[in-house]
Amino acid sequence: MTKPLRIALAGLGTVGGGVIRLLDTNGALIARRAGRPIEIVAVSARDRSKDRGVDMTRFEWVDDTTALAQADVDVVVELVGGSDGPALTLARTTLAAGKSFVTANKAMLAHHGLELARAAETAGVALKFEAAVAGGVPVIKGLREGAAANEIERVYGILNGTCNFILSKMEAEGRDFADVLAEAQALGFAESDPSFDIDGVDAAHKLSLLASLAFGTQPAFGDVAAAGIRHVLAADIAEAAALGYRVRLLGLAEAGPGGLFQRVHPHLVPVSHPLAHVTGATNAVVAEGNFVGRLLFQGAGAGDGPTASAVVADLIDIARGEFGPAFAMPADALTAQGPADAGERRGRAYVRFTVADRVGVLAEIAAAMRDAGVSIESLMQRGAHADGSVLVAIVTHEGPERSVAQALERLRGSQSLVGQPLWMHILG
Amino acid sequence: MTKPLRIALAGLGTVGGGVIRLLDTNGALIARRAGRPIEIVAVSARDRSKDRGVDMTRFEWVDDTTALAQADVDVVVELVGGSDGPALTLARTTLAAGKSFVTANKAMLAHHGLELARAAETAGVALKFEAAVAGGVPVIKGLREGAAANEIERVYGILNGTCNFILSKMEAEGRDFADVLAEAQALGFAESDPSFDIDGVDAAHKLSLLASLAFGTQPAFGDVAAAGIRHVLAADIAEAAALGYRVRLLGLAEAGPGGLFQRVHPHLVPVSHPLAHVTGATNAVVAEGNFVGRLLFQGAGAGDGPTASAVVADLIDIARGEFGPAFAMPADALTAQGPADAGERRGRAYVRFTVADRVGVLAEIAAAMRDAGVSIESLMQRGAHADGSVLVAIVTHEGPERSVAQALERLRGSQSLVGQPLWMHILG
After folding, report:
1. Can you list the domains of chain A with their CATH numbers?
2. Residue of A279, A291, A316 for testing the chain B interface, max B β-carbons within 10 Å
């Protein structure tokens, strides 16, 4: 057996501990598969004294995380997090030192992926990040290699487990968002400051990486239009169900002549679509290719075990000498595309208004839709809330998104509306 | 750009034509991803004069397929089929000539995979077969690389699109097997001699490859217990639905201390399981790993486009210099395991009897179950057929399979039974 692949591990939180535990548990099997042992030799984290449930004395402890780049290792694994700061410094110094770099850090890659991919190519080393998207699900590999023969027409999926946990619990139990969020926080499924997850930022980071891999474009996180699930009501989920849909927060990207389209938004997913059956904290990604058709990758989107599985899969690739290009092609071959105009897209929409219970409201909404050229497929008005407000939900026929935006613009400031309308796209 | 990867293509049927069409259509994109162009230079098939809808004059024509191994190429792609004969000769001579070999031939690999993997290692070339299992779905890569950090506890899935097409049509339309098979044959979804598909042989070939990849065992096709869907009635599907299940032909493999368990059999799949929602000719494979949990890979299981996508994905890997071990580890590291004793397995079962409509039948069945120690969870008896026979369907509590086998043995030859009982396992 050839000599071990030597690893430095930065960050000893849940995932870092999972990586150590995984290599302890499956080490012999992994050595058979990788052709050589994979050995952690140096570690670094903020707090040396913390009990992590595994013997840490066997590893060299490095106080300064960024100094791991100078350790006598082949690969640095970064599980520190943060789009800049120590993680980015470590990435740059590791690649500059001619060592491979493995990370789960979607935020850093969304912002600095192109620079880091160039640095890895210059050094002739690997930059790998399977754990950055969809946890344990090998979807980065699926796009970079498995679907590599295809022009990808569209990539989309459930990229945030916290949101899917909340939405599927709202669906199963008929409860409202705030209520379920509080429970998710108590259970540890949502952060005490949940904004990153529930407002779609985390999914947007991941989507920008998937889009780059799928379309051969430079990661363009700044062009992702992101919205979250804060404003989805239990009543919206019930209306959707009555119409044959489930509500899911989807990240969706398409490349076209008009530019790169990237959006994170709550969608209505037909029950006949596999994503409608993805519940709980599971992640799932669909890639549609011009030869392969629709591919689906699904599994646990977070957690120490799945994420460690993805990190170590990258290490096995590196141990096998399979470095691959970080974004599926050389960094200089990635094109810079501007954002597509969402108004040009055609689709069906669900628009829900909370309205005052008074004469003429429906006529006002219907007139705004008509004047903007929006064709209504169905309209539901349901009971009155305790506060006297009423829900009106509309499903449109297929048409340009611009028309729906114009209709909503016409209704802005109307005394008939209570709060903002909720616009969800229907996955077609 | 470095020099092209030169390909010889054996077999110009549907898939071979798809590979040519794919490289014609996506060639520039593939060259960006692979780092070099992929070029077919030589081809061979039975009939030179046949019109294949693409210009064949640009390729060197080789009359003797097995002579392609001597062509001036880097890789031979075999799409001839057959477990032995020209395909096997070509595989052996290609690898012996120090060229990489890509194939969609599950039957050949199920029978000769170990020998060919050894030959590829000896020659230091690649042996790749993504297209051999689940068409365009990158599940070979998913197991060999994506899930490589895990001890795989179980691998199972819908491996035959023809059977899934038939079962889901029976389910949707309440029609019986023979009727739907005839339609599938008319539509070209089933062969005129459909036995290979509907009796589970094709799925068994694929399962033996998945099991080897998942468990680090030598491919052991001879140890797969295979049954098909011939004896599934529309009434069975209806009973299953009433109980919250869908009927799917699953290949399922597990490794344990008692040996390697491999079975292709119709199963009851709970509607809460993603495989219950896989309809039509789609394939889907689940791998359960000790760290990653449950991974699902899903997509088109056949057809020229998806299969060509998988073949060319293998070629891109080879163009990138990523050869990998054929069965996820060196051939000599694969262990030889005997078959596990199915009787030792514990599970729940669906057993359906067609019975004569007369006094005492239920008592006889119930007594046989009791005497074999089978605990009955539910029993349904439904109406009489035109021929006077009646269906009795039983769902058992969890118990050893041996007990169910013993109960059926006790009832063998009973005058109360019309034809063979149907035993389906319930996916747990």
Report:
1. 5-132 (3.40.50.720), 139-300 (3.30.360.10), 343-426 (3.30.70.260)
2. A291
Residue A415 CA to its chain's centroid (Å): 37
Q: Any idea which residues of A carry the catalytic annotation?
A: 206
CB B40 within 8 A of CB B52: no
Per the structure block, which two tokens stand in for B78?
């075999």
**φ/ψ (deg, to 5) at A239:** -60, -45
- Closest Cβ–Cβ partner in A142, A284, A324 for B138: A142
Nearest beta carbon to residue B32 from set A30, A34, A329: A329
With vertex at residue B200, the alpha carbon angle to CA B199 and CA B203, rounded to the nearest 5 degrees, is: 155
Instruction: Retrieve residue B124's tokens.
Output: 């230091």
Distance from CA of B65 to the nearest CA of A (A): 25
φ, ψ dihedrals at B357, nearest 5°:
-85, 80
Smallest CA–CA distance from A31 into chain B, residue: B329
Residue A205 is encoded by which pair of tokens? 């980071």
Taking Cα atoms as reference points, which of B315, B297, B311 lies closest to residue B126?
A: B315
Helices (H), B246-392: 304-319, 361-371
Element (H, E) at B7: strand B5-10
Find all residues with CB under 8 Å of B337, minimum gap 6, and list them.
Answer: B215, B217, B218, B220, B255, B259, B260
User: Measured between CB atoms, which of A32, A306, A320 is closest to B333?
Assistant: A32
**Nearest partner of B126 among A124, A121, A213, A320, judged by Cα:** A320
Instruction: Give the pairing of strands A152-158 and A376-384.
Output: unpaired
Contact yes or no for A295 and B299 at CB 8 A: yes
A56 is written with which tokens?
A: 């840490």
Q: Which one of B99, B128, B169, B206 is the catalytic residue? A: B206
- Strand stretches in A238-280, DSSP E: 245-256, 259-270
Contacts of A299 in chain B (CB under 8 A): 292-296
The answer to whether B137 contacts A320, with C-beta atoms less than 8 Å apart, is no
Q: What burial class does residue B128 get, using C-beta atoms within 10 Å of its C-beta: 0-12 exposed, 13-18 middle, 19+ buried?
A: buried
What pLDDT tens digit does each residue of chain A (428 aa) get? 589 999 999 999 999 999 999 999 999 999 999 999 999 999 999 988 898 888 999 999 999 999 999 999 999 999 999 999 999 999 999 999 999 999 999 999 999 999 999 999 999 999 999 999 999 999 999 999 999 999 999 999 999 999 999 999 999 999 999 999 999 999 888 888 899 999 999 999 999 999 999 999 999 999 999 999 999 999 999 999 999 999 999 999 999 889 999 999 999 999 999 999 999 999 999 999 999 999 999 999 999 999 999 999 999 999 999 999 999 999 999 999 999 999 999 999 999 999 988 889 999 999 999 999 999 999 999 877 777 789 999 999 999 999 999 999 999 999 999 989 999 999 99
Question: What is the torsional sign of CA B209, B210, B215, B220?
Answer: negative
* A311 vs B contacts (CB less than 8 Å): 149
Look at B26 and A291 and tell me if their CB atoms are within 8 Å.
yes
Cβ of B33 and A216 within 8 Å? yes
Q: Do A389 and A417 form a contact (C-beta atoms < 8 A)?
A: no
Asked whether the beta carbons of residue B313 and residue A149 sit closer than 8 angstroms, the reply is yes
Contact list in B for residue A26 (CB cut-off 8 A) is 149-151, 290-291
- The annotated binding site of B for NADPH is made up of 106
- List chain B residues with CB under 8 Å of A32: 216, 329-330, 333
Place of tokens 């209709």: A407
In which residue are the tokens 């770099």 written? A101
CB A339 within 8 A of CB A262: yes
Which helix (H) or strand (E) covers residue A113, if one does? helix A106-123
Residue of chain B minimizing CA distance to A148 = B313
